[in-house]
Design a protein that fits this description.
61% helix
């Protein structure tokens, strides 16, 4: 019976030779170039996220001063499609409503600790970029993660 292909030993030698050839042919990237590529990618993702967020924020911030009220923050949070306010208004899930209220209170304690009813744009961005927020998807009753840092 004729043996097909190479023996295990010859395949192993062939693979080790070809692997070393591939490694030797692989172009080397300078560390600072790699850092530039990674940082540029991260920056473009932040810009992409912020563009959508800024469009929503501008809709809420009527006088364009970069400051919104606590009620406007709730409106912003709702427009981000994280929660379905109409779901609460129908009164279908009081536990979910309590969770939402608790979440909003938590955010407002961070964003407006002295209860001045003024929330600054940069504070909202820091909050959402720095926290991993798990929020219940009310249509599917599954927890989803938003704003991963």
């Amino acid at each position: 019976m004729q043996q097909r292909g190479r023996s295990r030993e010859s395949r192993s030698k062939y693979l080790s030779k070809s692997s070393s050839a591939i490694i030797n042919l692989t172009p080397k990237v300078a560390f600072h170039d790699l850092c530039d590529v990674i940082l540029n990618d991260q920056l473009s993702e932040h810009i992409r996220f912020l563009r959508k967020f800024m469009d929503l924020f501008k809709q809420i911030d009527k006088n364009s001063d970069g400051i919104i009220t606590n009620n406007e923050f709730v409106e912003l949070y709702t427009k981000m499609n994280i929660v379905d306010i109409e779901f609460f208004n129908r009164g279908e899930d009081q536990e979910a409503k309590r969770k939402f209220d608790k979440e909003i209170d938590y955010f407002l304690d961070i964003l407006d600790p002295f209860q001045c009813n003024k929330i600054i744009l940069s504070d909202i961005i820091k909050l959402f970029m720095g926290h991993k927020v798990e929020i219940l998807d009310f249509q599917t009753s599954e927890t989803k993660q938003y704003f991963q840092s």
